[in-house]
Amino acid sequence: MTEAPAHPALWPAPSASGAVDATVTVPGSKSVTNRALVLAALAAEPGWLRRPLRSRDTLLMAQALRALGVGIEEGVGPDGEGESWRVIPAGLHGPATVDVGNAGTVMRFLPPVATLADGPVRFDGDPRSHERPLHGVIDALRALGARIDDEGRGALPLTVHGSGALDGGRVEIDASSSSQFVSALLLSGPRFNQGVEVRHIGARLPSMPHIRMTVDMLRAVGAQVDEPETGGEPNVWRVSPSAVLGRDITIEPDLSNAQPFLAAALVTGGRVTVPDWPFTTTQPGDALRTIFTGMGGSCELTDRGLTFTGSGRVRGIDVDLSEVGELTPGIAAVAALADSPSTLRGVAHLRLHETDRLAALTKEINNLGGDVTETEDGLHIRPRPLHGGVFHTYDDHRMATAGAIIGLAVEGVEIENVATTAKTLPDFPRMWTTMLGAES
Ligand SMILES: O=C(O)C1=C[C@@H](OP(=O)(O)O)[C@@H](O)[C@H](O)C1
Ligand SMILES: C=C(OP(=O)(O)O)C(=O)O
């Protein structure tokens, strides 16, 4: 957690005058868009991404791939419907520079891709990107035959000296600080000479749905993947060397970004429908159907989408969020407004996310009069009457949306730097005021 700025730009979080009743169309998933971009760039033929997310994290991914020589064109596609990206793969070239911003997906998924470039690729990003764990990717790539210059930091900034190909093969990593280490190695795996076998040797592995997403998306582009959940050895993933097929893929709405809108239904005793909610998905946000139902609402999934209805009562919850860590800030915000205490567990790795999310949530909710304590791997939240004040975001999009949830029920909450939602949901302030029926 960095120091809060002295003169922050403040956004008065609108409070809800009654029960919300809205349909909210949520843009595409960050995690699916950035995987689809990487796989399309590694393919042997052009492909399409339909309804991609356009936000800071995905535009950084597209910009980086373009810097390596990949063509990414704006298009409407053969069916003439909706916005899309047409990705035209090409030989990957260095020298190139990549700005990762503070995108975990860019800083972790692209160094393996860069080993396939024919020259040096320099990676750097926001100051926070220097602090986020990357050692799993760096050490693994070296073990698989790559030359990487990180001046001994084990973190950004660094240069991958691509030589046009990577041997690949077997590697052990400790991915307890981020599932993205595993996803990163698997995504480029088909293009390594021997494919890749990743063995996780750490005590725990967070965000399993995101690893499932990687495996599913690899299979969808023709890769052969052996993995624990379909009969493979525990903690071992194997990707065989193969061509990657160019596909036409429609990106699902970002279910983690649907969270604040569903939370609004829960907190105000209202109703929110999110169209195009998938019937089956690997996105962790799908767990909100269970978690928010456990906190007092109910939901219905139909062809029209997911309709979530609040009951007027918000209950506390005791829940292990290790699989769905990115939902923690929004759940903490709802828990602070509940009528009984909550315990959120299994999320120690959130200390190394966009900011130290456990420290940031504790500090900011307590600044509004709350009673939150950090545990070794999560938070205890005892609801208390809250008051207005500034809610700092520490350049974390999910802190901004968490503050907005609290603002629904508490007058006078001001979000510092709401623009940080641009990381994954640039239109958040307008969507929020529209949902509330206020002027945008
Ligand atoms: O692979 C992905 O797309 C993601 C994996 C998770 O990372 P960690 O395993 O580092 O928590 C998640 O928190 C992040 O928002 C997106
Ligand atoms: C942890 C997150 O992002 P990143 O992909 O940067 O890790 C997040 O979006 O909550």
TrEMBL record:
Pathway: Metabolic intermediate biosynthesis; chorismate biosynthesis; chorismate from D-erythrose 4-phosphate and phosphoenolpyruvate: step 6/7. Its EC number is 2.5.1.19. Residues 17-430 form the Enolpyruvate transferase domain. The active site is at residue 326. GO terms for biological process: amino acid biosynthetic process; aromatic amino acid family biosynthetic process; chorismate biosynthetic process. It catalyses: 3-phosphoshikimate + phosphoenolpyruvate = 5-O-(1-carboxyvinyl)-3-phosphoshikimate + phosphate. One of its GO terms (cellular component) is cytoplasm. The keyword Ubl conjugation does not apply. The keyword Transferase applies. Keywords: Amino-acid biosynthesis, Aromatic amino acid biosynthesis, Cytoplasm, Transferase. CDD domains: EPSP_synthase. Phosphoenolpyruvate binds at residues 30, 104, 132, 180, 357, 398, 423. It is found in: Cytoplasm. It holds the Pfam family EPSP_synthase. GO terms for molecular function: 3-phosphoshikimate 1-carboxyvinyltransferase activity. Signal peptide: none annotated. PANTHER family: AROM/DEHYDROQUINATE SYNTHASE (PTHR21090), PENTAFUNCTIONAL AROM POLYPEPTIDE (PTHR21090:SF5). Monomer. Belongs to the EPSP synthase family. This is 3-phosphoshikimate 1-carboxyvinyltransferase. It comes from Streptomyces clavuligerus. The lineage of its organism: Bacteria, Bacillati, Actinomycetota, Actinomycetes, Kitasatosporales. The gene is aroA.
